[in-house]
Amino acid sequence: MAKTYERIADALRQEIRTGRMKPGQRLPAETALAKEHHTSVPTMRDALAELLAEGLIDKRHGVGNFVRERRQRVERSNARHQWEKDRARLRETERLQTGTTEHDTGLTAPGLEFRAHYREVRADEDLAAVFSVPVGTRLLRRSYRTFLRDGDAPFHLATSYLVHAVVASNPDLLDETKEPWPGGTQNQLLTLGIEVDRVVERVTARPPTWEEAEELGLQKGVSVIRLRKISIDTRGRTVEVSDLLIPGDRTELVFTTPLARW
Length: 262
Description:
The protein is of the alpha+beta class. It has helices at residues 4-17, 30-36, 41-53, 80-88, 92-95, 100-105, 125-131, 164-167, 184-190, 210-216, and strands at 57-60, 64-67, 74-77, 112-122, 138-148, 157-163, 196-206, 224-233, 238-247, 251-254.
């Protein structure tokens, strides 16, 4: 049986989702809400804490509670990998037309801002094991952030790793100013004669660090999804490892698995 604060939270949730309470609208004071719902202020605070954790409201200290402005939702499907592979061999003019963020959100490039930062790092035990290289091997670490032009937080935090010795034969792949690269990583690998055969994704969830919560604009209680994407080439080598931290309040992961018919 639902507790009192859960029933109140559900009533307020429906008001927000049906549009009776608009984005940016200030909620009545906690005392007024408690009186309206015939409950105590502590119970009302518990109900509001539920909505805060779900990302439906923002609490501005000393000001009040507000319905949160709707953020762009992202649908990330496993079908994107074949789309990326098909796109990698298109003419550059076609590759320039759209990127993976546009694919996942339905947005267009003029409304987006992309940032990339490269630096060399040494493989720790974790990455060395995934790449099957010695600990201390030189890697190229690439950090990516994509924002709505008028947004305050990136869609996710992406960190990609490549073995430096593998990609160094094409100097353009070491230059962050070449980003965003038309056709993405699969086209970059294609310039080296590398074809991705399969992608392995491992998904976990955890609370964010305070730095991650701040950068992603997460409310207290919202978890992040950690997705590790491992790209393996036709020779069985791991050629790229990508770690994504995805906000759990505005991302949906969709996995469709075709089944062989009897």
